[in-house]
Write a structure and sequence with these properties.
Largest sheet: none
Number of helices: 13
Structural class: mainly alpha
Distance between the termini: 41 Å
Order of helices and strands: HHHHHHHHHHHHH
Strand content: under 5%
Length: 234
Amino acid sequence: MKKQEFRKFLKRFGKKDHVVDGLIKYCGYYEKYIQENRNKTYGNSTKKDISAFIEYANTNNLKIKQYLRSINFYYNFIGKTELSKFAGQQREKKISKNRKIFKLKDFKDIDLKHIKSLEKHNITNVNQMIEIGKTQILRNQLSEKTGIPLDKILEFVKLSDLSRLGAVKSIRARLYYDSGLETIDIIAKYKPEKIINICLDFIKRTGFNGIAPLPKEAENLVETARKIKRVVEY
């Protein structure tokens, strides 16, 4: 493993030394595993090696999400984009599996009349909202069926889509949406510092009852936004 070059690569993302040290440590552990158990290196490993490691980690109660995050970075560093993407997808699956499905009614500043209209059609959580509103045609159909204005249907979909970004839920989703960071693609194009400044400015201007994300939170937000699979068409 090219530790020094990888360290420089990670530092370009603005990661602090202790974070870099952790990522390198997990990458080293994975490298040792594929060398000793799969007779492989980073250079000639495949998706099957990642899957085998996930099974090994689950059996040995390792914190697989941290390992997958680390090897995601390393494969990206060495230009193995397909493997980097695969590691990221597997990590997201693990996160999603343990994530409680968020209820639409729990979003901040939602019209409860619209919630009741959606509930009549068995739409109560963010997963259902995304599935039923992931395209313009589906959103038009849902608006006609429920009587909810199209712009409000789109708002529900965007809030639900934002909720896929880790800890983004009730207040955070509303803060990002109202401050103009209303889609995953918009968030992905900014640096964490810019996200924080946008939120701080919005809170100052409007008196929004909430706080801006902390640096680590903003860093994770942008990182996830850049890697997460797009499921909604805007």
